[in-house]
Amino acid sequence: MTTNDVIDEVISGVGNLPELARQAPPWAMNNLWWVVPCTLVIAITVGVAQRLMSRSTLSDRTAFEVLPTNGFDPALEDVLRFAKQIARAQRSTSRWALPARGTAMRVRLMSVGGPLTLRVEGPTRATTVLRHQGYAQCELRAVTGQESKPERPKIQLGVHNDGTSTSTAVA
């Protein structure tokens, strides 16, 4: 088969497109009874497989706290460098082998009975990249044990008798 033969077949195939377009709706309606269930089964199977693959990665995460000193005042370049390091940490984990859900980085601003801290969390595979933080006037501390999973605050909304509303956060 030569290149000219391939080109001739493509051109003749393009000539058949209007006829195929006319035949597509009746074919779809006649075969809808098996196409829709097969599509649903494939979609559910892919979703379950992604959840199972990302479950182990999500349970195996590491966290570091960035504790600023009193004179901490980063320049814009330092902030951009730190953000680039976080992006590099996410790329360092294999996004092809795992779903993106399992490789996500999380940055939290927290204050648990003390000064404001920045917590960076990610997969254990990215530990070496996460350790190289970019702020010169900060201490980097690994988070271990119970403090690695902070409780989510419970927010309660209420309405007083006088019609005003309040919101309180209960830790």
Number of folding domains? 2
What summary fits the major beta sheet?
Answer: 4 strands, antiparallel
| N-to-C series of helices and strands | HHHEHEEHEEE
Overall radius of gyration: 27 Å
What integer is the average pLDDT?
77
Outline type:
elongated
CATH class descriptor of the largest domain: Alpha Beta
Helical residues, percent: 40-55%
List keywords for this structure.
elongated; 45% helix; 2 domains; 4-stranded antiparallel sheet; 171 residues; Alpha-Beta Plaits; 6 strands; 5 helices; alpha+beta
How are the elements arranged and paired?
Elements: H1 3-15, H2 17-30, H3 32-59, E1 61-68, H4 76-92, E2 106-110, E3 117-123, H5 127-131, E4 138-143, E5 154-159, E6 165-170
Antiparallel strand pairs: 1-3, 1-4, 2-3, 5-6
